[in-house]
Inverse folding.
């Protein structure tokens, strides 16, 4: 099984574009003519059951199997560093793909990609509330027709892509997407990536709860946009994406202060600290080091020590050190 795709060879830096639920590689159609992207190799795919890709009735359409097909496609392409740009559902498949061996990941850009259960919104969760037979028997067609009549240009464009999506693939993909989003694993996977990462979102969605969960992640707003930032404001979206890709600046890497080394040793927490993901260790040290007052510094240091000891929190957020 091979996914329908468009590929243009440039440098060893490969940008992989992954679309959302019911969408296609046409979500990123504007990128091919834009100045500045020509130096990158670029690959846009139609996930299974979407666009022009195959749609076998016995395929699972799960996020895991979608990621596996993407990995298979990548195995036949020469590249030195991979940049994943993933919208909505593509964010889930992209995160699973990023964790596979042999993926030379340089950066990950989540474009309102699914990270929590709240990201499923009305579409995927409502779709799977209907039995499959009912969904295939008319609900999907009515959903498309409603979007075709929308005053929102992006929803009308989406409706055009939905017409090329298998309703079976849509329903099964939505089931898997909701399961992954509700699990809480996607957010941990995203925060745990040890590469440059950013979260791009539409200005109209600036109240999303997930934005407050992205400690240490670059957050990039696209003005005048909703969920479909690529079509709501293409010039700004692609300009900001290109700026991120072109930038080689990483988050500052903080050195371990002597008082932190001493405190970890005295509490017997050196091993617990070392087992934490790199981004957590760096965030802890930077947070402690930025304290202006000695009492604030002590308070932050003690919080880190307590969280390491419990293994259940990170910067006040729930965390399972055993996973």
């Amino acid at each position: 099984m091979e996914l329908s795709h468009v590929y243009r060879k440039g440098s060893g830096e490969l940008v992989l574009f992954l679309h959302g639920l019911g969408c296609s590689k046409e979500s990123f159609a504007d990128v091919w003519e834009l100045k500045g992207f020509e130096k990158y190799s670029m690959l846009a795919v139609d996930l299974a059951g979407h666009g022009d890709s195959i749609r076998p009735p016995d395929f699972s359409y799960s996020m895991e199997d979608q990621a596996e097909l993407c990995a298979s496609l990548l195995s036949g392409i020469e590249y030195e560093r991979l940049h994943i740009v993933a919208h909505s559902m593509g964010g889930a498949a992209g995160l699973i793909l990023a964790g596979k061996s042999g993926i030379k990941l340089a950066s990950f850009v989540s474009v309102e990609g699914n990270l929590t259960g709240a990201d499923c919104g009305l579409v995927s969760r409502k779709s799977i509330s209907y039995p499959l037979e009912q969904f295939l028997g008319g609900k999907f067609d009515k959903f498309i027709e409603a979007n075709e009549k929308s005053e929102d240009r992006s929803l009308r464009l989406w409706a055009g892509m939905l017409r090329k999506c298998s309703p079976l693939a849509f329903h099964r993909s939505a089931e898997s997407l909701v399961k992954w989003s509700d699990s809480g694993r996607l957010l941990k996977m995203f925060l745990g990536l040890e590469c440059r990462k950013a979260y791009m979102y539409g200005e109209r969605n600036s109240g999303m709860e997930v934005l407050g969960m992205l400690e240490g992640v670059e957050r990039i707003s696209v003005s005048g946009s909703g969920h479909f930032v690529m079509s709501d404001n293409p010039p700004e979206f692609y300009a900001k994406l290109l700026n991120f890709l072109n930038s080689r600046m990483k988050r500052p890497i903080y050195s371990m202060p002597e008082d932190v080394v001493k405190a970890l040793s005295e509490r017997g927490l050196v091993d617990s600290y070392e087992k934490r993901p790199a981004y957590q260790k760096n965030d802890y040290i930077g947070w402690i080091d930025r304290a202006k007052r000695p009492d604030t510094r002590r308070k932050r240091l003690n919080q880190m020590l307590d969280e390491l000891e419990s293994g259940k929190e990170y910067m006040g957020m729930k965390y399972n050190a055993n996973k």
In short: The first helix runs from residue 63 to 74. The radius of gyration is 21 Å.
